[in-house]
Amino acid sequence: MDRIGILQLNDYCLDNILQFLDIKEQICFAQTCSRFRDVFFVWSRRENTKVSILGDVEPLELTFLSLITKSVRELKLFVDDLVDSIIIYDSYTKNNQVVVKFCNLVRSMNSLECIKIWQVTPHPITKLLLRALRDLPNLKQLHICTPKRVNFGKFHRLELISIDVEMPPRALLRYCRSLTKLRTLHLSDQVSSSNLRDIVEHLPALQELSFYIDRSTRSRIPACHKKQMNSLIMVLDFLASKRTLNVLRIKGHIIAQDEAESLTKIQSLQSLDCSFAYPELVKYLSLLTSLQILRITYLHPIDISSIYLDVIRQCKDLLFLRLYDFNINPDFLGRASKVLKDIESKNKLQLLIYGRHNSLTLREFRSKALDTNNLLFRSISATELLKIL
């Protein structure tokens, strides 16, 4: 029987061989000849679209990254780990050369669509990285968490930005003015939302918004609190007038009737996550009849199960309902199922309930859910719980 050399194997066989090689062998494979390099490139476009630089970063990993730069579509980068791994020389010049080399590597990632950057200890490499990312043609998503303010105003192609950086209102407004293609804006509690009304005015394509209500004040004068409340009403009223927002997540309590009324004017909403300080404000949600996904946080001791049922009754397109409420008992499932039956809902409602429930109560919840065919009960997951906190 004739022997077949590796060079005689077709591309399919070579592709399969790559699956069983370690990173060092894969690097050698890619550097063997132009044909192997082409096979490696096709393979990497399928297997290496997502890359994470976390923990100890070995030199081999960076070499491998240099070979797959055109394949990377999503990059997760913990800057502190990268710095600890590559800034290893006593010479400033050598360390700077390494930093520049890595930034040039990132600059060549023309397929990159999403990058997530975390940083705890300040280091100038972050500023250089952002410069390298600025002109990438396909970059649409930027998630950034750093201890120092960064300038993202020149990322004109962005469609999503998540900002977890301490930033004053004026700087945020200045940077966001140029992000006219932005569809999704997520702001952490580090970012002041006091002038959010002015910011969203410059984002004509905005469809998803997440922010913390800014009620902070350095003065004890009641008028300051009123001003903060009015700023929330102003942004909600503006979003209602634009009629483009589909997803809204508000962290912090809705505390006044005017705020609840302004919220319900956003009739374009399909997904909402919010919390209420008082039970009488929750009823306004029944006016948002286009909702498909609803997450409610309510920590008042008064039972408002009947209000939740009315929301289900009015929001006929509802597919998902998460309730963070300590007052709900297992009988609620049967009542909710009856409402769904009465309105002849064509959807099976997925219901998540979080409260002070022991194992016996949870079993009762699940038992009640088994008696229905239009409702799916799930106890809340850790991932979902993190969205609440």
Give structural notes:
InterPro entries: F-box-like_dom_sf (IPR036047), F-box_dom (IPR001810), LRR_dom_sf (IPR032675). The chain has 389 residues and is α/β, with parallel strands linked by helices. The chain has 16 helices and 13 strands. Helix 1 crosses helix 3, helix 2 packs across helix 4 and helix 13 packs parallel to helix 14. It is globular, with a radius of gyration of 26 Å.
Oligomeric nature of the chains: single chain
Report the order of strands and helices: HHHEHEHHEHEEHEHEHEHEHEHEHEHEH
Query: Termini separation (Å)?
Result: 67 Å
Extended strand count: 13
**Which word captures the global form?**
globular
Largest sheet: spatial strand order: 1-2-3-4-5-6-7-8-9-10-11-12-13
Mean of residue pLDDT?
89
The portion of residues assigned to helices is 40-55%
Give the class from helix and strand content and strand pairing.
alpha/beta
Largest sheet: 13 strands, parallel
Radius of gyration: 26 Å
Instruction: Please give the count of helices.
Output: 16
Strand content: 15-25%
Low-confidence runs of at least 5 consecutive residues: 218-228
Defining key terms:
389 residues; 13-stranded parallel β-sheet; 16 helices; 18% strand; globular
Describe the structure in brief:
The chain contains 16 helices and 13 strands.
Topology, element by element:
Layout: H1 11-19, H2 23-30, H3 34-47, E1 50-53, H4 59-67, E2 74-78, H5 79-86, H6 92-107, E3 114-118, H7 125-133, E4 141-145, E5 160-164, H8 169-176, E6 184-187, H9 196-200, E7 208-212, H10 222-242, E8 247-254, H11 257-263, E9 271-276, H12 279-282, E10 293-298, H13 305-314, E11 320-324, H14 331-342, E12 349-354, H15 359-370, E13 375-379, H16 382-388
Parallel strand pairs: 1-2, 2-3, 3-4, 4-5, 5-6, 6-7, 7-8, 8-9, 9-10, 10-11, 11-12, 12-13
Helix pairs in contact: 1-3, 2-4, 6-7, 10-11, 13-14
